[in-house]
Amino acid sequence: MRAGGSARADASAERVRIVNWVLLVEDDLDHRLLIREVVSRMFSGVELHEAGDAASAIAWVRDRAKVKGGLAHGVVVLDLGLPGPSGFHFLEWVREHDVLDPLPVVVLTASENPMDAEHAFHLGAKGYFQKPADFRAYIAIFERALSLAAPGDGPPSSDGPAPGTG
Amino acid sequence: MIERRNPFRSSLVILPMWRRWLFAALAFLSHVLAFIPLMGQAGVGVSALAIFPVSVFGWLFGAGGGLVAGILSVPVNAFLLNLAGEPGWQIVLGGAGVEGSALVLVVGSVIGLFRDFAVRLDSHLTEWRRAERGLRDAEDRYRILFQRSRDPMYVSSPEGRLIDANDALLRLVGVGRDQLESVQVADLYEDPADRDRFQEQIARAGFVQDFPVRLKLSDGIVRECLITASERYGQGPARRVVEYQGSIRNVSESRTLHSLAERRTHQLQEVVRELETFTYSVSHDLRTHLVTIGGFASILWSEYRDDLDPKARGFLERIVTASGRMDVFVQDLLNYSRVSRAEVRKERVELKTVVQTALGVLAPAISARNAIVEVAPDLPAVEADATLIDRAIENLLSNAVKFVPADRTPEIRIDADVEERRVRLKIRDNGIGISAETVQRAFRPFERLDPANFSGTGVGLTIVERAVERMGGEVGVRSEPGRGSTFWILLPSAEPEEFNRLEEGEA
Questions:
Q1: How many domains is chain A built from?
Q2: Quick one: pLDDT at residue A153?
Q3: Which residue of A has its CA nearest to B305?
Q4: Which of A55, B2, B405, B412 is the most exposed place for a label (fewest CB within 10 A)?
């Protein structure tokens, strides 16, 4: 099955190439470990950065924005239920800072809630997913999420992100 | 004696006609029989006796009878005098004879007039007595009605004094009948302005109906009452208001019950809302851990399976399967609480679109079973919440594909009837069906009718029912066990105008 997984990773390589990094904002350590496994196994070459709450996620993005084009080719995967300010706070913050405008944020939450989803989309989220209880199901979600990554002005992007598999 | 017992019976004896004639004949006969013998002793003066039969005639037949008898008495006397050997006509037509005859005639007529007057007076008296008795009866009847009414009733003067009141009112106000006169109506109002408003309204309209007031009664308790009253005018041409008549309904108790019911309902709604929130947060937390268990178990399964011995692999498989089942279960719980909690936003929803979307979602299951799905081309639009109706129809279609024996190709037909202003969407399958005894249970949460043959959580139909109920619709099923079921959803049509037009056309 290891072989099968690798084959899948190869198939994703095409769209993964344009994604350099993922910022995972997640407080549950188990879930972080799980997602780390998914990314390292299936999306090799993608840098995974982790933040445990909205404040450190904001600090990381601020830091990253200092480098020109630092926010290109990346995507933020955001949990909504965070200690302290919630994921919505992060979404608001991103929306208030126009420079970050191309920064795509997708929500990944333990239980989807239509009202939360609506709110998140209203605040500019590009996607809203429920965490699956099966690691293979993460692949589809991450393919969708990574396809939303901002092309930015870095090298490989004039043809835009590849369409997701849905 | 009899008259006293029966006041409607005349005090005059009015004889039937044949008896009157009999008495008149007897009076005449006795006059004739007495004439000849008396003639011998009293001479011609005996002809004055004619006054007797003439009087009887007058009394029996009135003034007309007396006059006729008086006139007839002249030839009768002449004839009788002739019989007695006297020159009858000469006597009655001469001298004292004429005067005597005239006197007889006058007496007969006068007695007749008296009689007529007596008869007329008697009939008036009788009529008057009857009317009086009728009045007394009516007075009795309405007084009893007034007295025995359980609703307090009163008659009051424009100056604000009680003129009359029934026992119910005395009890309500808390005074004895002897204190009735001393009650000041104005004192009964908790807010004196109420009395002003009452008088203003009654002066304007002539009546008030269910006029709400708060009456302060002798026990100091304020009761909410509704007064229905009207003015009564005097008989004179001025039509002055002489009194108010009204009844009072004490509604404090029903108000209290009503507000109690309202409070209880509110509390229950709170409890239900809390339970729903609780279900939601429990499901959410369950799912958080399930993501971890299922996620890592599935990594183990797909990446490290080959490193395990068969026994450990078996254990791992159980964990993966169970976490998958639990995920479905928690998902259903979440769906259920979502359907219960979601804000209902009604809009025009095309059933065509909803059905197509649901069939899209269920495409994998449909193709896995090679199911044949037939959708009527003209599905109408309904008034519904887009999310709730999606949930409901998706669940019904999913059941229709699922609950079909493995050796049978599922055949599903979806169509709709328009009934009045509602639309009945019907989903017919050829599945296992539901027996009449279990049909009630089918919509209950966690109820699985055939757990041995079909997997599931038993929440699907509960979600359908809840979703439809929240949209103000109805859901039901007609089923033939072993041959299939038809589930239906009844929702308001989105095209009321069309029906209005139809109705106008018919009118």
A1: 1
A2: 45
A3: A1
A4: B2
